[in-house]
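User: What would this chain look like folded?
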Amino acid sequence: MPGAVTGTAGFALLIYGLTRGATGPDGVSHWADTATIGALSGAAAALIAFVVIEARSAQPLLPLWIFADRNRAGVYLILLCLASTFFGMFFFLTLFTQVTWGYSALRGGLAYLPFVGGFIVFAGLCSRIVPRLGARVPMTIGAVLAPVVMFWLARVHEHSHYLTGVCLPLLVFAATAGLIFVPLTMILVAGISDEHSGVASSMFNAGQQVGGAVGLAVIGSVAWTVVNSHVKDSLGRLSAGHAAAVRPGSPVYDHALATGVTAALTIGAGATVLALIVTLVTIRVRRQDLPDSPLVM
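Assistant: Here's the prediction, encoded as structure tokens.
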């Protein structure tokens, strides 16, 4: 019970503090607010307490030795990086297509169908490749492709076409995700007993949620700062009578938002570079240690 209370409180405060501190669409940052500092300080205290409790517990909720395995620790670090990329990409691309390109919510959702379909296809293919080649080969290929496709996607702007600006890079990113995530789910339970497989696999979801919250808060702060800076510069060049033209849907705002999206996706590309480095350094699992099929998350 102490571990459950401190762990839940720590992550709840962490996500709340990061979400509250992020710079909003108005360009105002809340990182220095008392509530934000208090939430993040409380999160640090609660998570430290959680680690101490788990280290001393005879039957810990989260056995800390689970992070001692080189491959499994690498998987969790890769998840943190990729989750921040995914959350940032989906959030800002959705915002961009609806605000700048004028897509409806339905059309914006349909724009992601190539990614969904591509991921299903490539994940199925990868599940057949891993038993033959092992996890390192497809993961490395996917990790190399991820920064390339993210930099490609970051080139999208208000005058881009859907096919070349969004659809094609999303298809490549679907292949990248399939090559990475299928081996990740298999590495998590490689060489671990059935008794602890639930804990190991549950950290997969926890890594995604924490990585997504942290990544979106950081990426969002940078992106909205860029957008706000461009809007302020445009307002400074316009007379008072034309200042109202700088609003969502106007050419000036569309360009500012496109610039912010480029900044957000470029940071996401940087996160995938970190994922590539972690993949090359940590993933050494043997093919014979992998389960016969990937986990369903």
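DSSP finds nine helices and no strands in the chain. If you want, I can go into more detail on any region.
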